[in-house]
Amino acid sequence: LNDTNPRSLIVRLCDVLSSLRIHGVVFEDDTRSEAVAQILDFISAQTSVPIIGINGGSAIVLTPKEKGSTFLQLGSSTEQQLQVIFEVLEEYDWTAFAVVTTLFPGYEDFVDYVEVLTDSSFIGWEHRGVLTLNLTDDPEGTRLRRQLREVSAQIRLLYCSREEAEAIFRAAREAGLAGPGYIWFVVGTNLGGSDQLPE
């Protein structure tokens, strides 16, 4: 299925499910749209057909899922990514960090989970605050560059969409915050794909 707009996706899947005896669906796409995962979750809940999302938008981990859904996604959750990042921070004794987020859905859960990881640890984490960015009404990135300069930590945990990450890294590079001495960990369930984030 190459056309992943919601209507076409639902119609095509329903056509396939109604015309063939199917025990399950393995779904892969090359989008990064969470809408694909939401549609597949809905279809699984309504039809009781197991669906496995293995790449792209279908693998963006949803929590919670629809009641009755048997939608399995092969991707790592934000919590799992943070656990790995904190292991790396601990290994290198990088205990001072700041959190940078946008208003991307799930950012409050991201901040809460960072607090859970730091509060429940015996490591002396130095959490230097949370910067929540609103990228609207700042097309030139002037406010964004100023806000990024105000963060006092060299290690930054960033939670945002892929498009927002591109704008943030562009502003960070222009502000001199993306070179040697600065470490950014980009966290999110929608950042995968074969394209690289800008250097």
UniProtKB/TrEMBL annotation:
<keyword id="KW-1133">Transmembrane helix</keyword>
<keyword id="KW-0472">Membrane</keyword>
<dbReference type="Pfam" id="PF01094">
    <property type="entry name" value="ANF_receptor"/>
</dbReference>
<dbReference type="GO" id="GO:0016020">
    <property type="term" value="C:membrane"/>
</dbReference>
<keyword id="KW-0812">Transmembrane</keyword>
<dbReference type="InterPro" id="IPR028082">
    <property type="entry name" value="Peripla_BP_I"/>
</dbReference>
<dbReference type="InterPro" id="IPR001828">
    <property type="entry name" value="ANF_lig-bd_rcpt"/>
</dbReference>
<feature type="domain" description="Receptor ligand binding region">
    <location>
        <begin position="33"/>
        <end position="187"/>
    </location>
</feature>
<protein>
    <submittedName>
        <fullName>NMDE4 protein</fullName>
    </submittedName>
</protein>
